[in-house]
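Teaching assistant's notes for section 4

Start the section by putting this record on the projector. Ask students to predict, before seeing the second block, whether Histone acetyltransferase type B catalytic subunit will look compact or extended. Collect guesses on the board.
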Amino acid sequence: MTDWTSDANEALALSLVRSREDKESIAEDEVYEGFHPSFTYPIFGEDEKIYGYNDLVIDLRFTSGSLIQYLNTRYSEKLSSSSTVDDVEGTLSGFIPPTYYKDEEVFLTRVEEDATTFRPSGQLIYSYTRLSPLSSQKKKGKAVSDSQYLDSENPNAVAYEVYHATWDTPGFKEYHRRMQIFILLYIEGGSYINEDEDSWEFVVLYEKRKRVKDPQIATYHFVGYSSLYPFYCFPERVRMRLSQFVILTPYQHHGHGSELYKAIYKYVLSRPVIAELTIEDPAEAFEDLRDRNDLKMLLSDHRFMEEGFGSSEISHGGGRVGGIGRGGRSGRGGNTAPNMNGKMGPPSDKVWVEKWRSDLKIAGRQFQRLIEMLILLRLDPSDARALRAFRLQVKERLFRFNFEILAQLEKKERLEKLEETFQSVREDYARILAMIK
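Reveal the predicted structure now:
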């Protein structure tokens, strides 16, 4: 039976297909076709296995911008017994719109047509640039301009744009039906959302790249997206929950996830009706992404850092204080004078913390964690008083967050568990802080 069993993750090949002229604008190391999903169990079952074929390839292609789909399966051998052989196309077709193409030539014609006609729907809310990989390839290792400062009109720039949409955005509901399969393929535990729930909002990230032969023509290519849902927040505001977040394989590990998160955060800040941004059951990788970006945002906020640590702790460039172990001024007896002019502590001024948390629209637990990380960033390991205050501040939060579990333990066991958790949290904070230096 093993000879006729295929790994669904390996068998399913995904492609974002560009037009012939658009392919001339990509570098040799850019691969947008033939990549694989992270998960297929929502489609092919918990074991992610497909039975009845040898050398099975499931060819699922998308026009790179409009995400029109083409589906084809091929194999070298297939079992003759129809009762035991899995119906690959029949199964997968239940998760994509029925309008997908089966004729390759017709699909490729559609790719050429959509390349210059497709435009994102919704409202442009954020943009950034990167140096064209093709330009970098031609430089052959020579120094190039910082991509973050490239104007979008620069011939060496690739622009990226984020659009906000809702179900009411013309054409978006149909577009969402084509892109939602990436939720199943990339988010563990991901599922399709209900179109009957009217309140959903979406932010979609696209690459906008100029053609080499005709730079006046720029075409759009799908990168990833996130779905958001507002919940009532007393008395007359909402909490915006980030529900789904996905960046496709060809664009991963290039900072696009951070840019999409920044776009969402800036959108939340711009809407007075939104009280705060919350995250639904984040994966570890997303938690790290969120922590890194939130910390960088706080460190670059001069007023926040000056109020938190005092003016003497603020660097010229906008708020970065010394690394772990480079704390305050030494006083008699080896102790320091921790943050005499600052509100960060330890212990932190709770009223000050809550004011900033509310203004920055960051969820309570997340903001408390960020404060703790910033304290640790400048904490002097020789300052016993500050170390104790920091430990108590973290443990107080941990106790409140895990109260129902810890309350059931005997005092000694409870204290041991809190200490164990504190040490684990501190180690994790050090790991995260190391990422932002």
